[in-house]
Design goal:
Chain lengths: ~950, ~120
Amino acid sequence: MNLFEFQLPLVVLLPFFGALLAFYSARYNRLAAAWVSSFITLLSLASIAPAIGTVFSGSNLIQSWPWLESIGLYFSFRLDGLSLLFSLLILIIGLLVIIYARWYLAAKDNMGRFFAYLLMFMGSMLGIVLSENLIQLVIFWELTSISSFLLISYWQHRKDARQGARMALTVTAAGGLALLGSVLIIGEIIGSYQLSDVLANGELIRQHRLYPIALILLLLAVFTKSAQFPFHFWLPHAMAAPTPVSAYLHSATMVKAGIFLLARFFPVFSGTEMWTWLVGGAGLITLLIGAYTALFKHDLKALLAYSTISHLGLITLLFGFGTQTAAVAAIFHIINHATFKASLFMVAGIIDHETGTRDMRKLNGLIKYMPHTAALAIIASLAMAGVPLLNGFLSKEMFFAEAVLMSDSNRFAWLVPLLVTIGGILSVAYSLRFVHDVFFNGEPIGLSHTPHEPPRRMKVPIDLLVITCLAVGIFPAFTIEPILNIAVSATLQHTVPEYSLALWHGLTLPLLMSAAALSLGVLVYFNRNGLIANYERHQHINAKHYYLKTIKRLLKLANAISQLFDKGSLQNATAWVIFSALLLGSFGFINYSGSLFGTRNYLPVDAVSLMIAGLLMIAAILTVAWCKKRLQSLISLGVVGLVSALVFVKFSAPDLALTQLSVEVVTIILLLLALYFLPASAPRETSRIRLWRDAILAIASGLAVTLLTLMVLSRDFDSISDFFIANSVSAGGGSNVVNVILVDFRGFDTLGEIVVLALAGLGIYALLHNAKLTPIQKFNTDEIAHPVILQTFSRLMLPLMLLVAAYIFLRGHNLPGGGFIAGLIASVALILMYLANGIAWTSQRLQLNMQIVIALGLLSASATGLAAMLVGYPFLTSAFSHIHWPLVGEFEIASAIAFDLGVFLVVVGASVLSLVQLGQLNQHPAVKEQQ
Amino acid sequence: MEVLLALSIGVMTASGVFLILRPRTFAVVLGLTLLAYAVNLFLFAMGRLQIGLPAVIDAQQSGYTDPLPQALVLTAIVIAFGMTAFLIVLAIKARSELGNDHVDGLHLAADEEEQRHHPR
């Protein structure tokens, strides 16, 4: 087996596995979680590394396995230039964030939980960028929403964290739903969900009449995830997350997922007027709103959040331009923004950590206390402002150049260079504020202690990021050009267009725009006090307020709709269900044109059958007539059950008759016990009208069922059972076809059914264990004298009954019997002991924990199935051979018998557990304690 | 014979439906049990009625009854028991928690009313 065949899924799945490992390792050592996380991230990097050469040589790596082929779902991964770039960003910045977080988290924070969430997020993010199948991509997309929800709400005790997390989840998950819609439409148009097919058929999609809907849905997903106007409001509230989370999710990865989709689908969706207006428009508005608001925020992280919004807008705008060189600039800026913004978030975290505040009105002159941190912050901020020799300058320059190129594309486009220059000015101003207001500008105000540098190693990640900013800014051709080229060619699905990463292009308009932005930005910053005062005088639109209002209205609407149907009355709801069933059924009757009954000959009626059927009907009617007197009603229900057993006997179903008979006994005892806890009678409370309504519904249902049964029974049919009858002995090794079907042909069904039974038993245990219920009538199985004759007989009978159960069990494969029936007989035997001798007496002698019996049963049944898998057969394949037993004779031992044993144990466990729990309720507390 | 069985199933269904529309939990549990019996018989009858033809492979036998509905009904009987047991315990628990056995947890039964006024 070549491990490289699984390389890409490994990259994605390793972090998920690591999440579990990190969570558990933190129980033993706090820091182990950080070590494990770093190790897993390195492992993921190592698994992607061998493929890097392939991608650089210009070919894509696709690894695919069919999953649900019929709906076009494949488990498939793709590595090309774009996904490689994003994977490296996710993994490398992830690793740095892990190192940083190890120092950031306080001693009382749960490390295991943090790193588990972080790795889960990393895995989901890698899943998005490496998915070849679009449905699989949507799954990972939703996983990022969920894991980012967990990360934002990491400090669960804080209300703002919980609220921010909920808001982020609502907005981004809604976007995820839109993405699913878009993907389904794309799949409908192309007939495939594989990315390769989609990328090859862009023309087909753009020409299709569903293109606008697919585009709008896609953009809803992009705009919600990447915080584009008007969905940008969730990002500032997500700042309640621990700072490493913000550095990772809200600079480098999660918010870039939307941008990634834009890049991925760029060759498919771009190039239309609609694309330019929607993507470009949203990008431009977001760029300006973000930059403008960032300037006025006093909170360091809020400034960074709005700046992130603004930069995401910039990238979106570039994609909106729709030209190939604009896409180059966009991808370049994705890398640059990730490096400088992640380092700035980490700096903000350090400042918060060391001073206890993030308020820039208090933070001043920190350069004296933390010069190293200050140097890092200054370089990163200058990169953010777009100062020459730093990476931000290069991509911003390209951005300005694209804006200038756009300016003659239509009547309003001359505004674009002007507006983006304003954005540039604001960006310089807020970057300067981050530097000047925090590290210079006098002395800190009101700090509880003197700040100092953080631990050396906490700054290592920032050092590396800042060095990257410088290296890319000074030597772009050596550092970034190779990977940028392959990412661009993968994005465009085309050769890389001419572009230049040179620092100096001559005295061009973009350079003048940069110069204007820098000088005017400085001017704006030093006039900030007036501007801030002006900003704070005005009422601003509070997006959170509208969001909460919308959510409230939605909930109200949902409630109103539910209440139309559900008025809080079970009777009403049941009546509606039955009425609708009748209504829908009657459509079938009305639309059916053939003759009502078929031509099959009926069996002749004999006198005994007539009497038995009469008894059945009378008992059923009496159950209803006596429904206010509960004991009598229950007795007649018992008669119905017993008579149905007779019906099974008559019509050649000995297995069913045995089952019905034993179930009946257990059911009636159970219901009798329950009567002690329910009122003995029911009051008159139903109005005459309602009685009539119920009677009409009941009679209509009865008639309908009678008619339906007769229609079926009067016709012949082709049974599919010939297969089972023909193969029962040869394939299943048993001649009782019913039992072979249960334990072999349809064994998986049976496994499901015993699980249900086990759950019912355990559910009853959960409901009644240690519950204090007051019986309506006092009754104690241990206080009243037990009838001596019954007691004696029950003790005598027990071994006999168990022997019968064993006999029925063993012969079940060949003659009527089997695990279900034997289990019920054994339960009846045990229950008889409890009834005759009292629970205390029996429990002392039968120290068998019924929960364990249930568990053993399920274990035995599933282990049988798994054993078959171990030998290489499908789940629950049975094997058998014949052995000769003394006295019993020729006997088949099939692996199905282990399965049937599981069935037996579950049936015994569940039924005895239920009855004993119910019986025990009556017991004296003192007796209970004795046990 | 088929008519007789169809009628019996019909009467059982009607009684079951009427009972599950009652306002008290015990009647609803009985109704569901009755309905389960009816459904079991109905499913069983889908294999058509055969007399004296068990589904056990035997060289001397000429024909077999349909084993598939039997296998389905066999588990259905046991599952129905599990459901009945769970429901009745739920009903007991509800009465103890809510103080009455109305399906909506509303009114007091007569003997509960009495118990409330004259606690034993």
